[in-house]
Amino acid sequence: MTHLRNDPEQQHEYPETTAGKPTVDGDAKVAARGANVFYGAKQAIKEVSLDIAPNEVTSFIGPSGCGKSTFLRALNRMNDIIDICRVTGDIRLDGEDIYDRKVDVVQLRARVGMVFQKPNPFPKSIFENVAYGPRIHGLVAHKDELDEIVHTSLERAGLLGEVKDRLETPGTGLSGGQQQRLCIARAIAVSPEVILMDEPCSALDPIATAKIEELIDELRGNYTIVIVTHSMQQAARVSQRTAFFHLGNLVEMGDTETIFTNPEHKLTQGYITGRFG
Ligand SMILES: Nc1ncnc2c1ncn2[C@@H]1O[C@H](COP(=O)(O)OP(=O)(O)OP(=O)(O)O)[C@@H](O)[C@H]1O
Predict the structure, then answer these.
(1) What is the ipTM of this complex?
(2) β-pairing verdict for 112-115 and 30-39
């Protein structure tokens, strides 16, 4: 079922199932029903319905070009900045339609933060990279509070120990892995509920990757995390739930172990056994 966005007459219907099965036992943090994403006339995501469980890591896997990143970006309206991109269907955060015209997109992106493939610190100090978000969102009244948020965020991102003596030096002077943890600290600093990660380790070496993976595991205690990854090993290591996409369709979603050991669909089986991808 496809609904047009922002149609006030539209009654949203919530089928209870995705491909005949509930995907989350309790309340979903994020729920998509019949979501479609188009770039001009090309449809990149087709009728995707899935639930993202709170305080879990969900990974999106699938062959190149299957729409993982497109769907991830639909979850915090990052696609809005692409002129030709259009989203239809229903995507909710804690039950609220994120594409409703009343939604403040800046606030939405604070609640649903994003970490990109390439670490992208601002050309500013380590401190300023983390302080920027809380400042523009008006989260702090005093310098002390800002200091506290910056320190806590760096600590949670597993970076404080390595940078506490050089907070005024440029963020761009850190190693790639440190820069990515700085970007995670920057995302955390505005107290998001969900963190979207688009191949966060693809530019990192194995040691830096292992640190980010450990961090993802620690962070799920406080946040809901969705990660796009090309690495099935990474999906198996970090996520509790996995969704497999193929040509814009969600083929199968389930607990990670089942997806990797006993998938239902031939396509999933083919992908995880390396027959295509
Ligand atoms: N800005 C854009 N404009 C037009 N088409 C796009 C744009 N971004 C992505 N696409 C197309 O949408 C489809 C899905 O792309 P997307 O990047 O979401 O896939 P992906 O599964 O994340 O791929 P990869 O694993 O290679 O990153 C592809 O056909 C891609 O060419």
Answers:
(1) 0.97
(2) unpaired
